[in-house]
Structure prediction request, 229 residues.
Amino acid sequence: MVKRAFLPATAIIAKVTGRNPADFQLSGALSAQQIGPIPFFIRWDGIIRLRGNARWQNQSVLAFQSLIPADLAITLREGNFYAKAAFSVAQGQGVIAGGHWSVTNAGLWLKDGSVDGIDFILPWRLQNSRWQQGTKSPIQIRIKQVKSLFDMRNITADLYGYYPASAKFPLVLRAVNVDLLGGAVRLAKLPWPQIEPAILTIDRIDLSQLLTRLRTTTQVAMSGKISGQ
Prediction:
């Protein structure tokens, strides 16, 4: 039997204030056992616009363990999460929203290893039914170390652009770096849709370490370092 991810029982506490429907204000908080509380505030300007905001206060990522399917064998170990968002709705404009997610110094156990020092920053914006990933700065992923078949260190990646992506609104992955096997693998830039070649650089990968990690049973021995693009 596969154990599914689940969201704990959710509770919303809210109150409405105002003299009439034209100037109401809605405030409250949402929580799901250890997740939250997430205070929110929504108001109507009495003319054309509905505005709101929510702030997810800093809390341990351990509260989100139930959202990870058990068959993935991922156990959250440490780290903190923070988020905030704001939105407005008006006729002719639709929904405009934006916010910021942040995960700092997270760590987790894998079935055959671990991941340490995860930092994740996600600024976002929604307008005209299109998501903008990264606003003033890109989405940033930083991981100090992954211990598995190949030990990897100093993992970095930046992502910015739009989804759905198009030639006018591309999505771009850049500054990808992984230190492994005594060397590094780098990707300078990869856009979607792809209109130019993406260059993957291999820098001084140790062949002896590679064969050791692959645990090959054939009578093959190699040494030295390889680089290329």
